[in-house]
Structures are given as structure tokens and as C-alpha cells.
Amino acid sequence: MEIKTKKEKNTVIVSVKGRMDAVTSPEFEKSLSTLIAAGENDFLINLHQLEYISSAGLRSILTVAKLLKTKDGKILFAALQGPVKDVFNISGFGAIFKIHETEEEALKAE
What we know:
Distance between the termini: 27 Å
Number of domains: 1
Strand content: 25-35%
CATH class: Alpha Beta
Shape: globular
Radius of gyration: 13 Å
Oligomer: single chain
């Protein structure tokens, strides 16, 4: 899994590429937790290049979301594709989190 971050206005855009599973999801959690500890609390997670997400990946997302909630932060998602989009819908994450078709659309919705 590859994680890239960039900052646009007050939002940290996190692009995730590859697979988010039991092996790689702790890396995602650690990356975002470090950013939150540094004072960031507004995140857009771009999953355009994420090929696969397991229950461990979903759990990491929930852990980060709970941490952000304590800091009055927010987390948005953009560009979900294929099986990842299906997993989000089946798991109910589509109802819990704001999901946008594109990164640009999500940034405008801020």
C-alpha cells in the first residue's frame, strides 16, 4: 500500500494506492494518527487507486474517524472504485461517511 498526502487549504488529502488489509491497514492508521497528533483535523481520503479493502481496513478507518471526532475533525471520501465502493455500500460506510465522486467535488462541498 502506498500513502501520499498533500494539503489544500485546510484539508489534508490522503491518496491511498494498492490494498488495505490486515497487513497494511496499521500503516494507514499510523499515518493519519500522526497527522492528527500534529494538529490536522480535516481529511479527504482519495481511494481512486485502492484496489481492495478488508474488514481490517474498515476498522482502521473507523479508528481514525473516532479519533477525529474527539478533535472536532472530519473525514470525507472520494473516488471509490469497483470492489472498494461495493464494500463501503455493503458495510454501511456509505451511510456513515460523506462520499463524493471526485476529489474536486469533495473539496467544493467543504
